[in-house]
Every structure is written in structure tokens, then in C-alpha cells.
Amino acid sequence: NCQKTMTDSKTSGLPEADPSDWPEAWLIPDEVEDQYALNKLEPNVPVSVEDLKKIGISYWKMDAESYEYPTKSVPWDPKDAMDPKLNQLRDDRGYSYADIITVHPDHLPDFENKLKAFFEEHIHDAEEIRYILGGSGFFDVRDQEDKWVRVHIKKGDLMTLPEGIYHRFTCDDKHLIHAMRLFKGVPVWTPFNRPCDDHESRKKYVESFPPVTEGKQLQEAA
């Protein structure tokens, strides 16, 4: 299914979170021994909210404390949302499908192998939306220099990854994340593992968020 083109992103009327509310992000090595660890460089190299936005990441801080959600519901009707902020985001961005999952050894059969699969670098041919209802974990995304950026997502974080971005996901060392997945239209979770540079969604992403070459970096620094 490499012919599907990137859908036009619909701007939400709900303002994104203040920079101070965004999750912490930092560079990590190309290879890691323990995917559940922080894996910060020595010294740590933080990544700014501005740099996350440059690669297409969007983020909203939600109220996950005041509303109850099931441990698992596949599907879960987003029209059942009681949170007015979530309702507005749903309507603004056209999310018509949702499900709720819990990634934990007690709730996800074959936990270790599933997490290894989630940690394979891949793209999707649609925007990826995750609302963290409990627990915590990491989204790793490639920046414009093709370096890994680790974003530490926790309860109350709602983050979107643009169609075509190279990324991967894992729990952190607590091995628990309770999350809502939202989707426009019929949900398709198919991953296309790297390399997939000829995939239409990847080409569209590169057009929208062009990589920064070493020559361009030197020119900008001059």
C-alpha cells in the first residue's frame, strides 16, 4: 500500500501546549542496548520544542486525571469522550475512530516480542496520534539530520507524529503505558519498516520537512 498519499493536515483550533508543558526530549545514540532506558548522551543533548515542531511534531497537554477510561477497548467511540478539550480536538482534526490499549505484561500477550516489533524503525501512511492516559514511554523520532530524538511521554500527553516520519516506540523501564489511539476514517496501523524512502508518504514528508545537510548547516552558521 505504497500509493496512498499524505492527507492534508487540518489545523486544530485548540492551541498547542506552552513550550514549558511539552515533554522532555533529548538525543540518543544510533544503537542502544536497553530500549527501556533513558539512553541520554554524556553530556546530555536536549532537544527544544522548536526543533520538535520543525520535524512536524504537535503536542497538547490534556487532563487525564479527571476522566476515567477503560483498560482496553477496541474500538472505543471518540464520541463517548466526556472531556471537552478532547472533544474539541476530535472535532477540529476530524478524528472519527479511537481505541484504548494498555501495554503491560499483564495486558499485552507476548509483551517482549511485541515491544521489539514496536521498536523497529518505520513509517505510517497516516498521521499517528497518541493520548497517554497512564504510565509512560518513549517515542523516538528522526530529526532533520537523521539523528534519533527520544521524547519521554507521560500521563496527560497527547502527541501527533506526521505521516511519513521515521519513528519507533517503546515503554520505559516501568513497562506500563495506557494509551488512546485516534484516527481519521478507517484505522490502518500498517508499519512500513525502513528503508522506505520510495514510499509516497515518506516522499511527501521529506518535501514538507527537508533534511538538513552538513553543507546547509555550515552555511547557516556562517
UniProtKB/TrEMBL annotation:
<dbReference type="GO" id="GO:0005886">
    <property type="term" value="C:plasma membrane"/>
</dbReference>
<dbReference type="InterPro" id="IPR011051">
    <property type="entry name" value="RmlC_Cupin_sf"/>
</dbReference>
<keyword id="KW-0539">Nucleus</keyword>
<dbReference type="InterPro" id="IPR027496">
    <property type="entry name" value="ARD_euk"/>
</dbReference>
<keyword id="KW-0963">Cytoplasm</keyword>
<keyword id="KW-0408">Iron</keyword>
<keyword id="KW-0560">Oxidoreductase</keyword>
<protein>
    <recommendedName>
        <fullName>acireductone dioxygenase (Fe(2+)-requiring)</fullName>
        <ecNumber>1.13.11.54</ecNumber>
    </recommendedName>
</protein>
<dbReference type="GO" id="GO:0005634">
    <property type="term" value="C:nucleus"/>
</dbReference>
<dbReference type="InterPro" id="IPR004313">
    <property type="entry name" value="ARD"/>
</dbReference>
<feature type="region of interest" description="Disordered">
    <location>
        <begin position="1"/>
        <end position="23"/>
    </location>
</feature>
<keyword id="KW-0533">Nickel</keyword>
<keyword id="KW-0479">Metal-binding</keyword>
<keyword id="KW-0223">Dioxygenase</keyword>
<dbReference type="Pfam" id="PF03079">
    <property type="entry name" value="ARD"/>
</dbReference>
<dbReference type="GO" id="GO:0019509">
    <property type="term" value="P:L-methionine salvage from methylthioadenosine"/>
</dbReference>
<keyword id="KW-0028">Amino-acid biosynthesis</keyword>
<dbReference type="GO" id="GO:0010309">
    <property type="term" value="F:acireductone dioxygenase [iron(II)-requiring] activity"/>
</dbReference>
<feature type="compositionally biased region" description="Polar residues">
    <location>
        <begin position="1"/>
        <end position="12"/>
    </location>
</feature>
<keyword id="KW-0486">Methionine biosynthesis</keyword>
<dbReference type="InterPro" id="IPR014710">
    <property type="entry name" value="RmlC-like_jellyroll"/>
</dbReference>
<dbReference type="GO" id="GO:0046872">
    <property type="term" value="F:metal ion binding"/>
</dbReference>
